[in-house]
Amino acid sequence: MTALLRYQTGLLLRSQRWLAPLLLYVAVLGVGVSVGEPVLGALGLTAAALLPVTAWAVRICVSQESPAARNAVAAAAGRDRAHLAALVTGTALPALVGVVAVLAVTATGNRRGVTALAAATTGLLAALACALTGAAVGALASRPFVRAPGWSLAALVLGSLLALVTTGSPAKHAMTALITGSRTMTADPPWLAGAGSVLLAAACAALACRATARLE
């Protein structure tokens, strides 16, 4: 699996297709987050923006290989393991950027009534919930389930929106915790949302890998 992850990461970095979701994330934070604003509200936007960005990055990773290259990798390592490596790569890189953003916002935001540790913990758990929920959306909105690029993009946008507003979504739960905390100036780390997002992402990854092995 390590070799597959290095392979997928190398493909992504060399293709420079990661620039578009990264620039989108930076633009959202640049417009929506200001130095000195209440930290929990700023962390809410920082985490929420990760969801569509991660979904986009996952879609990029699972579709960046040519059919010939995909078949060669599948023959050497197994189609399901190759697909899992693409999913992990597409999730890990935005998540790392999100961690840096959460720490930066925690350091520069107004933490009145909230300790730095509590704010960082809450922000990191919310970022985890949003990133993994976005990974689940990306896994379901791309191959092997949705092959046409236009329909895949439409499914990704709609899925990201629903994941942010639907009751029961880990991302929605994390956002609710941050919004409530910003009003009461108390940090309530969304542990349940973090755990739920791990289960959701694992289930969607397993489903996508099994479907890939059967359908491609």
Kindly describe this structure.
The chain is mainly alpha-helical and 216 residues long. It has one domain. 81% of the residues lie in helices and 0% in strands. The protein is built from 10 helices and no strands. Helix 1 crosses helix 6, helix 3 runs antiparallel to helix 9 and helix 4 runs antiparallel to helix 8. The longest helix has 30 residues. The radius of gyration is 17 Å and the shape is elongated. The model has no long low-confidence stretch (mean pLDDT 90).
> How many structural domains does the protein architecture include?
1
Mean pLDDT over the full residue set: 90
Secondary structure: number of strands: 0
Q: Roughly what fraction of the amino acids lie in strands?
A: under 5%
Tell me about the largest β-sheet.
none
Distance between the termini: 20 Å
The tally of helices reads: 10
Question: What fraction, in percent, of the residue positions are helical?
Answer: over 70%
Give the radius of gyration.
Answer: 17 Å
Can you tell me the overall shape? elongated
Task: List the secondary-structure elements in sequence, H or E.
Answer: HHHHHHHHHH
Structural class: mainly alpha
Parts with pLDDT < 50 across at least 5 consecutive residues: none
